[in-house]
Write the structure tokens for this entry.
Amino acid sequence: MKIMRTPEECFANLPGYDFEPHYVEIHDDNGTPIRIHHLDEGPRDAAPILLMHGNPTWAYLYRNMIPGLVDAGHRVIAVDLVGCGRSDKPAARDDYTLARHYDWMSKWLTAMDLRHITLFCQDWGGTIGLYLVATFPERFARVVASNTGLPLGEGESEFMKMWVGMMRDAAAFPWDMFAQGMSANLSEDEIAAYRAPFPSAEYEAGILRFPLLIAVQPDNPGAPINRAAWEKLKKFDKPFLTIFGALDPVSKGWDKRAQAEIPGAKGQNHATIDHANHFIQEDAPEILVEKINAFIGGAHP
């Protein structure tokens, strides 16, 4: 497996992002070493908040949330999924499967030996993060799911048909569409920061492959894995909160399903943010920080 690694100079002087990088090396089952990047801010002896991003973003997505969470006394860890951000990037699209993403991040989580975790997860960070919760429930104290879900092979929405169809043969990621997923108006420098991990299309195999791994089709190879994880999540009785953006077309409705079927979601102060789109971290960072801090303060494992 050929690995691409974004040159460090690509991450110099990013606006609003002055965090020290940390790395953990895991190994794919074929023996290939893969370096995974994360941020680690706040007191090391505090219970961690794990922030997991989606496609095509990276830890930069959390730059406006990390300070408010750290100021509340939390240890805050923001990880870059494999193929994204400062993490290593397998070079071939076929290198990426749902099972591999689950395995890579499972190995990272156990290598970090995180416990008493509050998970905040969005988009693919939620799909992968919820799999981790289902697989390692003893490591998680509570979950905040935002604009995400665990696809079960039950069919595609019109948006998903469009997105998967467009990305199936795409030669490069359509960055001109990225800003359509948020209400916030990013500066050109901020948009450039999101693109920093991908100095050319040859670094984009992972973010191009993600849409085809969304297990919405009944015959998608990931659907059975997700269905097994969902059965475990339906037994998760620790606090589980949903915060969704009213304008998000991607995961619309999954919050209601989670509230109805996950035991820990019963009686929680679930929220919908009216002005927030898919990348809710850009649209409502202060609201998210307030709700996460309140959730940790009022919900105990």
The first strand starts at residue 3 and ends at 4.
